[in-house]
Amino acid sequence: MHEKDNLPVIVGVGQVVDHWDGQDAEKAPHPLAMIRAGMDLAIEDTGSSNIGAAIDCAAFIRTFPDSLREPVIPFGTIGNLPQAVLAKTDLAPRRVIYSAVGGDQPQAMVNELAASLASGECEVAIIAGGEVIGAMKAAMKHGHRLDWSDDTDGPVEDRGKGEPLLSRYELTNGLGMPPQTYAAQEQAWRARHGLSTAEWRELASKMFSRFSQVAAANEYAQFPSALSAEFLATPSRENYPMCDPLLKWHVAQDAVNQSAALVMTTVGKARELGIPEEKQIFLHGHADIKDALVSQRPDLSRSAAIELALEQALTASGLESSDIAHRDLYSCFPIVPMLAAEVLGLDPLEDQLTVTGGLPFFGGPGNNYSMHAIASMVETLRKDRDAYGLVLANGGFISKESVGIYSAAAPTTWAPVSSEAGQAKIADRPEIALINEDCEAEVEAYTVIHGRDGPTSAYVIARNENGRVIARIDTQDANSGSVLAESEDLVGKKVSIVHRDGVNFVSGLARA
């Protein structure tokens, strides 16, 4: 046995996109077929005719319908997606995994299975996922009646939906869907940098315009159009306000039909299976860090999880940020790549931050986006063989971060990297008391949520000497709604809060 035979490697990748226009129902992409298509391409990409029979572990990224507390299933239930996908393949893995919820899961699964491969727990693994949210929406719009139901069963290690990403207190007082929760963090970041809403939109839009240019040249992108910074920064019918300061095209677009998969093994097994060395891309340093609930984070304009995960992965690789040539920083909202760029010492308007084009333009296929990022990184590093690439995958509300650093160059040695020390730093932070009573507090973050006809609701996150309070703003109430007149500079202002019927409400600006 050679010294490096147990080094884990990615040896095959595959990506699929379908631009179905919603017209012919018979051409609608099927969720199971989409995932199989990505798997077939990844297996074919290895160049080995024997690898399918050698796959002994198959991991699947939890789909969007299976991630919701109340699943959206207009075309039938797929009771056991992993086994339903495998049923029409020749694969017979002895271990089958269905991941937890979260956009961190593709990279987290690579990190986990790399350890299993290195230890000999498995020999060849395939990781796959895909979404047809675009087809679901198009079919419903056109009145098609599709049948995606499947009752295939079999053993699966089902990781479930995981712990709730928002608490009852947070939900009751205004937090909710990703745009309205991320938007408040965007406002905190904007305030820390002293930017007006217009200045923030200009910065975010210049960054995302560069992302869209990458997507426009990517054959697997769902929305391959280069969009100007001016268009992205300007509210319009095509780029309407969602949750201040976010406009539509600052947000991940989930109406996609995309799948991606990758095959992993070890150097020794790859040689046995006849997989060419030029196919092999190595995982170097990596990390998996979870943050606390949004209301328990000391500074809403920063992310300790992103900072700790990136620092750990670089340290474990023996690299500096300047050693990384290629990056894909998760981009569901502008704040994630902006925060990561800060940690890495990058200029978001000059440095390369994506190899796909990002979630608003390449597409946001549920939890599986970063599988595309990893596949694209593998293809990039096969060509640029002396370079290093970094993938940052993000789940929840900047709640779960997973990082992998890759290269065609093999590490001298490899061992799983423990994230315990970084996780302990999160756990050791003092608990923040949450307030449910009349009070005054200084605003840290906020957002105004828009509907078709203007603002529909709003909320603030604020602090005082007793802790933190989250409170709704009644946009229809003259007194509380008047606070929105200060929304450009609301961070740092004191507001009065009243507690009634179990909910906190902003009653107006506090008197000086």
From TrEMBL:
Supply the InterPro entries for this chain.
Thiolase-like, TLP1_add_C
Q: Where is the Thiolase-like protein type 1 additional C-terminal domain?
A: 438-502
Is Transmembrane helix given among the entry's keywords?
no
Q: Which range is the signal sequence, renumbered to this chain?
A: none
Q: Tell me one GO molecular function of this protein.
A: acyltransferase activity
Entry keyword annotation includes GTP-binding: no
Kindly state which keywords UniProt assigns to this record, in alphabetical order: Acyltransferase, Transferase
Membrane-spanning parts: none
Family designation = Belongs to the thiolase-like superfamily. Thiolase family.
Kindly give the PANTHER family that the UniProt entry links to this protein.
Answer: ACETYL-COA C-ACYLTRANSFERASE, THIOLASE-LIKE PROTEIN TYPE 1 ADDITIONAL C-TERMINAL DOMAIN-CONTAINING PROTEIN
This chain belongs to the protein called Acetyl-CoA C-acetyltransferase
